[in-house]
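pls ignore typos typing on phone
guanosine-5'-monophosphate + seq
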Amino acid sequence: MLFIITGPSGCGKSTLAGRVLEELDNIDFSVSYTTRKKRNSEEEGKDYYFVSEGEFKRMIEDMKLVEWAVVHGNYYGTSKRELEKKATKGDILLDIDVQGAHQIKEKLKKTIFIFIMPPLYLELKKRLEKRGEESPESINERLDVAKKEIRHYHHFDYIIINDLLEKAVEELKSIILSTRCRFDPCKKEIMLILRSFSEEV
Ligand code: ADP
Ligand code: 5GP
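k done
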């Protein structure tokens, strides 16, 4: 299953994704492509694949992306190959902006969408400032975009208010774990159990 977390920049998507990937088995992160500059804390191939604008535009032309968007002046996109590669290992967690989430909604039906909400506008501002990765101009741009993005919350399957981090982590893990228990006629483990009941002992 593909789990998409979306929401304004600074709402805590990367933090929540990091915790869930550490604490749950059988789930991998879909690494996006971006033309944004690498932050000091980031690793090529782990946080993003960092590419030039030319390389990114070639990927769009070659239809290698499932979705892409210009976010805060940089290109970001999800590659088909990355999703195919990670899907062989179990569930996938994808952190994308609201525009990208809407594109995926149109294309991939079997996807769970989770909107991460900051508890208050001023708290979002504080978190972006505290993260200390952007210039004041970039923070203001992210906050302006956030005012529009926040209104999209009702388009998604779940909403997590990321106030207390531990509570938000538990909520995200619960969504993933409960989705795994949903009825699925093709589930391999169920097939094996059923087969064991029809075998002679
Ligand atoms: P995003 O990936 O959505 O842009 P981040 O995960 O980078 O957001 O979080 C932005 C900042 O807010 C980071 O400095 C992070 O440590 C902090 N943060 C995330 N969740 C919480 C929370 N529940 N309470 C306080 N600070 C948080
Ligand atoms: P940041 O620069 O803070 O890492 O990310 C900025 C925004 O880009 C975040 O809202 C993040 O969710 C979004 N983003 C990251 N990867 C992708 C992607 O592959 N596609 C889209 N549409 N947005 C992405």
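Residues 9-15, 127, 130-131, 162, 165, 168 surround adenosine-5'-diphosphate (ligand 1) (CB under 6 Å). The radius of gyration is 18 Å. more later
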